[in-house]
Every structure is written in structure tokens, then in C-alpha cells.
Amino acid sequence: MPKQFPLLTDKMEYLLKDIIASLGQLPVEQRVFLFGPPDGEDMEWVLGTAFYITLEYIKCAFDYDDPEYSLRHFIKGENDTDDERVRQSRIIEYVLKYKKREIEFSGDVLPPDHKFANVSMDNIESKLKGYRLTEMNFFEQQNIHNLEIIKAIVQNRIGYAKRIKNERFIEIFDQYDAFIEDIIAKSKKSDKDMVFYSLALFTLEWHYPIELLYYIACIMEETDIQEINQSDLVLLCGNVEIESMYSGWVATQSRMVKERLLFVDPLFRKGMPDSEKEELKSLIKEIIALVVHYKESLYCKGDIKYIDWFRTESNVSDWASFFRFYDIFSIWEKKEWTPKRIRNMRKLFNLITLEKL
After folding, report:
1. Residues in the chain with pLDDT values less than 50
2. What is the C-alpha separation between 341 and 159, in angstroms, rounded?
3. Closest-CA residue to 97 (of 139, 150, 154)
4. What is the DSSP string of 65-122?
5. Residue 37 and residue 46 in contact, taking contact as beta carbons nearer than 8 Å
6. Residue 19 CB: number of other CB atoms within 10 A?
7. Which bin fits 266, alpha (ψ -120 to 50), beta or left (φ > 0)?
8. Is 217 helix (H, G, I), strand (E, B) or coil?
9. pLDDT in tens, 206-242
10. CA 309, CA 294: separation in Å to the nearest integer?
11. CA distance 27 to 245
């Protein structure tokens, strides 16, 4: 019998089919609300939801297995110089400042031993040995410091023409596009690279929704939309508190990085009746709540959480086969700019900015 998902490893296909089957076991009322009646079920959206859940499982499994090292581990060979140590020390302080603010703004309490806590250390050597980072943490840290677009976002400069002129605005987005092109090329080298760089883009877009905002900015320009509802935008890319009709209150981050692009047209284009828009927003909320339920509350064998079972039953080769099939890089689009599109992007960034400086 031919495989339903030929690009996936046998184990990955089995796991994905198991998730799809479990969606079919949801209470009838919930399943109908999410996917439609049995005789008209939207299988494309069933699959989309299963893919979204699978990606979240892979992210959790990867994070669990990604070992931590001292910062010294990442400074090797010819880079192990006094100048590089000083540079990395400054990067640490820079990233800590904004990561700490981001975590606390989301409402989380930052424990004293958290890797992004502002731990007091006497000298560079202490910092190099004391901060524990995974390879992904280190990669993200370098991006926050080295990518001008990320610095402009976290410093709340991107939304203002007086702080970043249009010419500079285009330059820093060109740098970002070149960076994405580079990691796409690197992802093709091995299974490990495919997983690492796919999750890198997922994490980057989750924290700094550049592709989402660009897509919306283009729609605003095409359809002459002047303003976007902030709460609708946050629902797609921010911290949300949801009262689910089926699982109670959920507080989480909306990070369906690829799937949310399907909602942009109907949610923001002109002409959709308010009643239909409210129904769509309810659907988005229920999908987000469902994924939280799958991550935190779903058990598959006795007292074994489904997500823990996934971690032990899959590996990097399985995850890589999923990302080659899923292709998260398809969310990226090389940017083209007009003055109106730039103005729209500035408006959108100002809607999701953490705080005013």
C-alpha cells in the first residue's frame, strides 16, 4: 500500500496519522465547530491542524534534547581572543536587557536562576563560564545582536521614520532577507541542519512576526486599508488569554507561524460581515486552545503524556523528514518596498511594540 505522506519517514508518518486519528476522536460538537460536519469535513484544515500540532511536538522534543553549554564552548580556535570575549560579554548584556523585558512584559515571573535573568557576575570570565546556552540559544542571541531589523524592533525604532529613514529601513530588511536565504541554503546540508534552521525561522517569526506583518502590509496597500484592529493582530502573533468553549481558560502565545497566513485575507480584507469575522476569530482561538491541550493534557498510554511519547519515539531524521514535507521556509517572501507599504509596516510594528521608549 503506498504511503499517504511519501516524504515522511515511516515513524513520522505513523505519528502524524495518530494525531490525525486523535483529532477524529474529539467530541462531536468541538470537531464540527473546528472542521465542519462529518459529511463536509474540511480535510485540508484537519491536516493543517495536525501539522501545527506536530511542529509544536518537534519544537518541544528538540528543546528537551538540545544540551546546554557555557558560553566559552561557543568561542573556539582563532575566535578565542580577548576582543571576542569582550564582544560576547557586551552581546550578553544587550540580549539580557531585552529578553528580560520581553519575558516580564508577557506576564511571566523571571526566576533568579533563569538564563535571561540579569545575574550579577564580576568579570568576563565569570560570564563566559556562568551563562548556560544551547546551540539554539546562542544562535538566537547572535541574531538579536547582529540583525539590524531585530535590534530596531526590540528598541522600538522601526515604527518611526525619524528614527529609521526609509532608505535605511529598506537596507535592514535586505539584510534580513539575505539572512533567511542563507539559512535556507544551510538547511539543505543535513538532517540536523534542516531541523535546526527550520526551528530557527519558526522561533524568529514567532517572536518577531516579520513575514506576517509584511503580508498584511501588502494587503493593506492592495485594498486601501488604512488601519488594522490591534486585538485581531495580537490574536495571530501575541500573548493571548482565551476562554475556550471546550477546555476553559488558556493563557499562551499565538505562534501558528505558517497556518496563521491562511487567516489574514478573511480577517483583514474589507467586506467580510462582522458576524463571520467573529466566528473566524472564535475558530482561531479554539485552534490555539486545542494545541495547548494537546501539549499539556493529552495522554496516549496510561500515564504517559502524548508529547513525552513523541519525544522518545522520534528522532532528528524523523523531524527532518517532516520539515522537508512541511516547508516552513515557504512563509518567507523577498521584500519589495513602496512608500505606502513602508508606512503600513511601521503602523503594524507599532501595534505589537512592547512599550514606548
Report:
1. 1, 118-121, 355-357
2. 12
3. 154
4. H---EEGGGGS-GGG-SHHHHHHHHHHHHHHHHHHHHHHHHTT----TT-TTS----S
5. no
6. 21
7. alpha
8. helix
9. 989 999 999 999 999 999 998 899 999 999 998 899 9
10. 12
11. 12
Judging by beta carbons within 10 Å of its beta carbon (0-12, 13-18, 19+), is residue 357 exposed, middle or buried?
exposed
The two most distant CA atoms of the chain are separated, in Å, by 68
- The kind and range of the H/E element at 249 are strand 248-253
Q: Could you tell me the pTM of the whole model?
A: 0.87
DSSP-derived secondary structure for 290-353: HHHHHHHT-EEETTEEHHHHHHHH--HHHHHHHHHHH-GGGG-------HHHHHHHHHHHHHH-
Q: Which amino acid is at 313?
A: E
DSSP class of residue 131 equals: -
Q: Which amino acid is at 262?
A: L
